[in-house]
Amino acid sequence: MATEEDQVKKAAELKLWLENRIEEMQEEMGRLKETLALVDSSLRASTFRPAIEMMDEGKEVAETRELKQDKGGKVIATASVTSESVIIEPKDGMKLKQATPPFKSFLVGKILQGMRAKDQELVAQGKLGKGRELSFDVEESEGAISKVIVENYREKARLNEILSTVAWTFSRMLEK
Questions:
Q1: 3-state percent breakdown (helix, strand, coil) of the chain, nearest 5
Q2: Spans of all domains in the chain
Q3: Tens-digit pLDDT profile for the chain (176 aa)?
Q4: Can you say whether the dihedral through the CA atoms of 61, 73, 92, 98 is positive or negative?
Q5: Exposure on the CB side of residue 20, measured as CA atoms within 13 A
């Protein structure tokens, strides 16, 4: 049977072993953190996409573009662009109303509805699948435009036309 002195001696040995082990693990944790920092740095240097995006291959990350006023170059809206849609939001503090010309007559009436009508013709002719035609929506908050959402623009030329037309339209609206 172990004596009390043996138990104290054993406890002291265990304490010393635990302290050494904790110190070793702290050193290892420091080395692991340094290694992680090196790996992150290497990934940033060798790719244009952050590692989190590479892990999320199934999710498409939106590209953000700034739309600028044609006179003065002030940013008046931001556009979040994916391969399927574009969401355009006026900058905070800009109270643009749908009733202000040329929003309804030009942007909505001529450009967006014109593109949708062309797509509907293609669907009717069987050249475009149903559900692939351009669609759009205008959301409001407190009586002002909060978002212009365009889905199925399909072509880069159309996207560029939509973005430049929105920038031009918002610029004209701000002059009124």
A1: 50, 20, 30
A2: 4-55, 63-175
A3: 678 888 988 988 989 999 999 999 998 888 888 888 887 777 766 655 444 444 455 556 778 999 998 777 889 999 999 989 999 999 988 899 999 999 999 999 999 999 999 999 999 999 988 989 999 999 998 889 999 999 999 999 999 999 999 999 999 998 87
A4: negative
A5: 6
Of 78, 79, 82, 80, the closest CA to residue 60 belongs to 82
Burial class (CB in 10 A: 0-12, 13-18, 19+), 151: middle
Tokens (6 digits) for 128: 């475009």
Which structure tokens are listed for 1? Answer: 């049977």
- Structure tokens belonging to residue 48: 């244009």
Dihedral, 85, 91, 93, 96 alpha carbons, nearest 10: -50
How many Cβ atoms sit within 10 Å of the Cβ of residue 169?
A: 23
The amino acid occupying position 52 is I
Q: Which residues of 95-131 are buried (b: 16+ CB within 10 A; e: fewer)?
A: ebeeebebbeeebbeebbeebbeebeeeeeeeebeee
